[in-house]
Specification:
By secondary structure, the chain is an alpha/beta fold. Helices cover 33% and strands 19% of the residues. It has 16 helices and 20 strands. Helix 2 packs across helix 16. It is globular, with a radius of gyration of 22 Å. This is NAD(P)/FAD-dependent oxidoreductase.
């Protein structure tokens, strides 16, 4: 009996992880990537001899036995990467209204770090932490406890906004804002983003937090190596231009250079709207196409990549969220005068026990509309007005960090920038959105993108399916691959691997 052929469009985390699981289970896997570099948001790049992360700046729940650790072992990544822990007493540091607040790993330390600033709120802090654990733990996928009996996530946490639930859980408005200090990790919006999204992401990092030594592209390379060990292929510079279908199913994909890849199963790691553009199959109804095209995407980002002078800037093993506005909410809405309302500043890790930073990044929200006038231009050839736009915004971001860390700017040797256009072109995200399609409770079930399509052998994966971040994508991978292998079998394999 011949192997079933699985063609995967796109080599982001979703595409590669699906490729590993299916190749391990006997599928003939071919991953097609239109760029010369694999990885999607796992990509890194080098400038002037220094390496920078493009998207996956740090990871969570990677201590032995925790959720991501188990997934990385199953995907045969663990032995190929080295992790450097962030400060367990303050992996995230929030600067708000001139004061500093540290988020620690683990329940007791989490409460202990915040209690001096909020001595009246011990019960609320405990209630909040426990609610986060309850919601995240109730998801069999997020906790990788498929065979255990547990209550499902209560629907209210999927349909109620973060701020709504927080107002009933934590009495102090300032404490609520502090606990929202890391919301750029999932681009939350007030009255829109479901509390469950906050719970999944927060619990993920509350357990443990790490950086990948040498860059997250090592994760992508390790998964490529695993696919190839099982006989699969990962082919770059193969842009899929058409999904060929008969009247019942997808049968092949065509690429821009004329190659044709036949498929028994087709998985797309592209944005769903881009996937729909690749086929004119009547199996995908017009109403479905319109709905996916109309879904809102998360806000984009403007990044300043910093190369530091040698042995000048002490390495910072935490992430710094600074706010110029009195609340973390609403930073995606700004004027020319008020931008940036907030920023995320962090360093990249090149070695264990690092003493000085070689590079870092400052990231702030930026709407695609700000750069839409250059959307038909190409990277490196967008014109002097675009370069002036980037310089102006880079100087504003650097000044914002300098205000909070006096002397910071003296350590910068050189900087580089990216906008939502850059992110769109290099990672394939729609309109340069930071996390793909936005979770919006005001749209109800219509805001969700299912991994199944009406083309029965065309499946979807990636950050637009299920939830955001590395864990959210891998959860989506399990959901997608379960259609072919069964969830019980995948969970059995994960358990046996560990």
């Amino acid at each position: 009996m011949s192997q079933k052929k699985c063609v995967i469009i796109g080599s982001g985390l979703g595409g590669l992880s699906c490729g590993v699981i299916l190749a391990k289970n006997g599928y003939e896997v071919t991953v097609l990537e239109k760029h010369y570099q694999i990885g999607g948001c796992l990509q890194c790049f080098s400038r002037k001899g220094v390496k920078f992360e493009s998207g996956m700046h740090f990871i969570g729940s990677a201590s032995p036995g925790q959720t991501l650790d188990r997934m990385l072992r199953y995907l045969e990544v663990s032995d190929a990467i080295e992790l450097s822990p962030l400060d367990p007493w303050g992996y995230n540091v929030i600067l708000l209204n001139g004061k500093t607040y540290r988020m620690a790993n683990g329940r007791d330390n989490f409460i202990r770090q915040l209690l001096p600033s909020f001595p009246h709120a011990q019960a609320d802090l405990g209630r909040y932490y426990d609610l986060i654990r309850q919601v995240a733990g109730a998801s069999r996928l997020h906790s990788l406890r498929h065979t255990e009996t547990m209550e499902a996530i209560q629907p209210e946490y999927l349909t109620r906004s973060i701020n709504d639930v927080m107002e009933q859980t934590v009495a102090d408005p300032l404490l609520r804002d502090v606990l929202m200090g890391a919301l750029p990790l999932y681009a939350a919006e007030k009255d829109k983003t479901p509390f469950a999204t906050h719970a999944f992401v927060t619990d993920f990092y509350n357990q443990s937090a790490y950086r990948v030594v040498g860059g997250s592209d090592l994760i992508a390379r390790a998964m490529q190596a695993a696919i190839e060990r099982y006989g699969g292929k990962v082919i770059t510079k193969q842009e899929v231009t058409h999904i060929e279908c008969d009247d019942q199913r997808a049968v092949a994909v065509l690429t821009s250079d004329g190659n044709r890849y036949e498929a028994d199963v087709l998985i797309s790691d592209l944005h769903p709207a881009r996937t729909l553009e690749l086929t004119d199959s009547p199996l995908l109804r017009p109403a479905y196409r319109r709905r996916l095209r109309a879904l809102p995407n998360t806000v984009g980002g403007f990044s300043v990549y910093l190369k530091f002078k040698p042995r000048t800037v002490p390495y910072m093993n935490y992430n710094l969220y600074g706010y110029r506005s009195p609340t973390p909410w609403g930073c995606e809405s700004y004027t020319t005068e008020t931008w940036p309302k907030g920023y995320l500043y962090l360093h990249t890790c090149q070695e264990q026990q690092q003493q000085y930073a070689q590079s870092g990044i400052i990231l702030s929200y930026m709407q695609y509309a700000d750069v839409a006038r250059w959307e038909r231009t190409f990277t490196g050839r967008r014109g002097e007005d675009y370069e002036a736009f980037k310089r102006q915004h880079a100087e504003k971001l650097i000044a914002a960090v300098e205000h909070d860390i006096p002397g910071f700017a003296d350590g910068i040797e050189q900087y580089f920038t990216s906008t939502p256009l850059t992110y769109r072109d290099y990672t394939g995200t729609e309109a340069g959105g930071m996390y793909g399609i936005a979770h919006d409770i005001t749209l109800g079930p219509a805001a969700r993108v299912h991994h199944l399509t009406r083309i029965p052998n065309l499946l979807l994966t990636g950050q637009n399916i299920n939830s955001h971040g590395i864990l959210g994508v891998l959860v989506g991978t399990i959901v997608t691959c379960s259609e072919l292998l069964g969830s019980e079998e995948i969970f059995r394999q994960i358990t046996e691997t560990y």
